[in-house]
């Protein structure tokens, strides 16, 4: 790359000017011009104000393709990086991709399945070779798509979370935690994905509403506290007193070790401490009191299955209850009566309900809609079950993060996410960092086949991507980042974990500001989903409207983190705005033909009333745009520029200039146009650079490329 834009590298002059703006004719050429300039790389930037400005990309998965959330997130980041580049900052927007353990392994396994193969047919070594081949072929597709959006990342610094250097960072982090006694191995109830055959953290779950039933099951109260009689007959059951519990999972009653009620529930106070007979198993279990129980749910009494429910596990721990594992890792019933042993979960449910009905122990059934935990990658239903895993103690790490956030070392935009982050950190559980998959960073323990949770390596991104644990020049110059943008979905998965990781390993917060951007919803206000056919492909929008219109349309709707109900009409507005700007530039260029103005600031001595009014309004527009961008008010900034260009400049002043042919008016036309191009460049980089290059050819501007042109100063126009 070169940083000499005077050197002819791209034929911009062949872009047709005499017809409506066509982004397809300019975008690829302009992006090549920027790449050839070398100005995406902070090392090549002109001498500026001596300050650095760093943004770290949220590294997309190598399985991913651009979606609307990516488009908004990266448009925000590119707007900020271009704004600060023009203000003289040494800007670095660091790109990279994430190896995405489960998602990538699933993608390659699907390809193998088409050939009638599984990863087990290949073996681990050959399967990992296949993944690396897949990554070489498909892993950078999303980065190429970001180029189509106009993102000005420093591609020379692109990182991958399975690079050799990054693997060293992960090992170093683990060994550090080990030495501090923060890593331990133990059997705990974890979220288990039967399809992917791995543990997941709470944050890796998604919840889906499902229609089910709520079964009300009668548990016979034992005749005395020591009654442990097996083989209770139907007549004995019918003559017993009962406590009725409501459950959506009757099959797990085979592993019940208690019935729990709320200690404030007056209905059951006399029963606490007594025992019941567990139907079908005929095992005596106690009735315990625990404040976790919701009095309003069902009957107010619930079954406790500690091995297969996280809340039940907590109740068991407090009440010293046994933990009986009755579901295994492949979703089969184990350690129970012979008639249920080996059944699939769904089969066991049907059989348990049938047997209970035979005994007259189903009081009633109700239709019930509830949220069911799903694997965030394969959408399989999660089964909580005991498993031996590696854990990271979170309390001392969370305390560091809490202190940094409370002290203002890290700020949140919008600010409400600060309280949400603090709440999670104050109540965080130890982190299960091991996964039972082949693709990923292997845990460096002898005879351990587990890999790290993908988020374990992602948590190191702000410094590992800059070369840590080596003391690199980039680490010294660009840590910590100024800003990071993220979706709310990964606030705890990623943002909070990066905070405590940065404080632990660098003794400094990894970034100063967290921007949690809006979620792009469909017109009906629902989340977009490609699998459900409700997703919108940003690349199709870019093809239809152009990158600038897509970017501007998204930013125009961005206000204070409020969710965006996506409306394609706004992109149409962005396209019309681009064409309006194109026509304005063509008019100004024609009007000033033969005049060498070269960045002259207008001489307002003797200027008419209309010219003075325009310059005053332009100064206000510069100030408002600058202030809004500094405060991350992106939508407000876009509205300010749009209104000035369309109404104050086009509708009023250009119409006024048609009746005037003075040198002063021509100078003001060029000055206003060049200022508009600078203000709009962070939002609509392609068309503004294209017009700028025409002005360069006509010798109407001194700066040879807009990407590093000086940001306008309000005071210079007042």
Oligomer: single chain
Major sheet summary line? 4 strands, antiparallel
Specify the CATH architecture of the largest domain.
3-Layer(aba) Sandwich
Q: How far apart are the termini?
A: 39 Å
> Structural class of the secondary structure composition?
alpha/beta
Number of strands: 22
Low-confidence stretches: 1-15, 225-239
CATH class of the largest domain: Alpha Beta
The domain count comes to 3
Task: Figure out the total of helices.
Answer: 23
Describe this structure in words.
β1, α2 and β2 form a beta-alpha-beta unit. This protein starts with 26 loop residues before the first helix and ends in a 21-residue tail after the last helix. It is built from 23 helices and 22 strands. It has 718 residues and is an alpha/beta fold. The chain is elongated. α17 packs across α18 and α19 packs parallel to α21. The chain has three domains: 246 residues, 3-Layer(aba) Sandwich (Rossmann fold), CATH 3.40.50; 177 residues, Alpha-Beta Complex (Isoleucyl-tRNA Synthetase, domain 2); 149 residues, Isoleucyl-tRNA Synthetase, Domain 1. The chain has a four-stranded antiparallel sheet with strand order 6-5-14-16. A four-stranded mixed sheet has the order 10-11-9-12, with helices on one face. A three-stranded antiparallel sheet has the order 8-7-13, with helices on one face.
């Amino acid at each position: 790359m070169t940083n000499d834009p005077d050197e002819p590298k791209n034929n911009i002059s062949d872009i047709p000017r005499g017809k409506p703006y066509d982004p397809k004719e300019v975008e690829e050429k302009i992006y090549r011009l920027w790449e050839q300039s070398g100005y995406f790389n902070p090392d090549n930037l002109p001498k500026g104000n001596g300050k650095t400005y760093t943004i770290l990309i949220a590294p997309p998965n190598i399985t991913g393709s651009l979606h609307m959330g990516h488009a908004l997130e990266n448009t925000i980041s590119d707007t900020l990086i271009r704004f600060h580049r023009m203000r003289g900052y040494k800007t670095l927007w660091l790109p990279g991709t994430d190896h995405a353990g489960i998602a990538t392994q699933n993608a390659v396994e699907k390809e193998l399945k088409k050939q009638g193969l599984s990863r087990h047919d290949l073996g681990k070594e050959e399967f990992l070779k296949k993944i690396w081949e897949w990554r070489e072929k498909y892993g950078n597709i999303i980065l190429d798509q970001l180029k189509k959006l106009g993102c000005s990342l420093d591609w020379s610094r692109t990182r991958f979370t399975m690079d050799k250097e990054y693997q060293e960072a992960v090992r170093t982090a683990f060994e550090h935690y080990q030495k501090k006694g923060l890593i331990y191995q133990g059997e705990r109830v974890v979220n288990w994905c039967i399809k992917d055959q791995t543990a997941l953290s709470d944050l890796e779950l998604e919840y889906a509403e499902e229609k089910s039933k709520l079964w009300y099951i009668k548990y016979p109260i034992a005749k005395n506290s020591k009654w442990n009689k097996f083989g209770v007959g139907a007549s004995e059951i019918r003559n017993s007193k009962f406590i009725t519990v409501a459950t959506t999972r009757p099959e797990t009653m085979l592993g019940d070790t208690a019935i729990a009620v709320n200690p404030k529930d007056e209905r059951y106070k006399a029963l606490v401490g007594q025992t019941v007979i567990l139907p079908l198993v005929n095992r005596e279990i106690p009735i315990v009191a625990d404040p976790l129980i919701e009095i309003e749910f069902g009957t107010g009494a619930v079954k406790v299955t500690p091995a297969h429910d996280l809340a039940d596990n907590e109740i068991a721990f407090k009440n010293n209850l046994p933990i009986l594992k009755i579901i295994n890792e492949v979703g089969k019933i184990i350690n129970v009566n012979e008639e249920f042993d080996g059944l699939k979960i769904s089969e066991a449910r049907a059989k348990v309900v049938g047997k209970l009905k035979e005994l007259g122990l189903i009081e009633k059934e109700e239709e019930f809609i509830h949220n069911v935990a799903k694997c965030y990658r394969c959408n399989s239903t999660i089964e909580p079950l005991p498993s031996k895993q590696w854990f990271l103690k979170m309390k001392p790490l969370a305390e560091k993060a809490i202190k940094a956030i409370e002290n203002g070392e890290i700020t949140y935009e919008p600010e409400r996410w600060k309280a949400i982050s603090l709440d999670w950190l104050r109540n965080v559980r130890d982190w299960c960092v091991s996964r039972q998959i082949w693709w990923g960073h292997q845990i460096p323990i002898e005879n351990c086949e587990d890999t790290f949770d993908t988020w374990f390596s992602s948590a190191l991104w702000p410094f590992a991507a800059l070369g840590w644990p080596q003391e690199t020049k980039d680490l010294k110059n660009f840590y910590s980042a100024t800003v990071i943008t993220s979706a709310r979905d990964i606030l705890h998965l990623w943002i909070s974990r990066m905070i405590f990781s940065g404080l632990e390993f660098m003794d400094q917060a990894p970034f100063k500001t967290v921007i949690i951007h809006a979620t792009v919803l469909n017109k009906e206000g629902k989340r977009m989903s490609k699998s459900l056919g409700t997703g919108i492909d940003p690349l199709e929008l870019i093809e239809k409207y152009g990158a600038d219109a897509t970017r501007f349309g998204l930013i125009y709707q961005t206000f204070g983190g409020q969710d965006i109900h996506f409306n394609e009409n706004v992109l149409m507005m962005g396209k019309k705005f681009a064409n309006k700007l194109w026509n304005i530039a063509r008019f100004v260029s024609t009007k000033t033909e033969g005049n060498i103005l070269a960045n002259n600031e207008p001489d307002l001595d003797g200027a008419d009333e209309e010219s003075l009014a325009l310059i005053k309004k332009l100064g206000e527009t510069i100030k408002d745009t600058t202030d809004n961008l500094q405060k991350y008010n992106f939508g407000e900034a876009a509205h300010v520029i749009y209104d000035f260009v369309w109404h104050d400049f086009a509708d009023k002043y250009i119409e006024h200039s048609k009746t005037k042919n003075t040198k002063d008016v021509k100078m003001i036309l060029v000055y206003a146009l060049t200022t508009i191009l600078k203000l709009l460049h962070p939002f609509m980089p392609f068309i503004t650079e294209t017009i700028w290059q025409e002005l360069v050819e006509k010798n109407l501007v001194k700066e040879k490329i807009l990407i590093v042109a000086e940001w306008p100063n309000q005071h210079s126009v007042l």
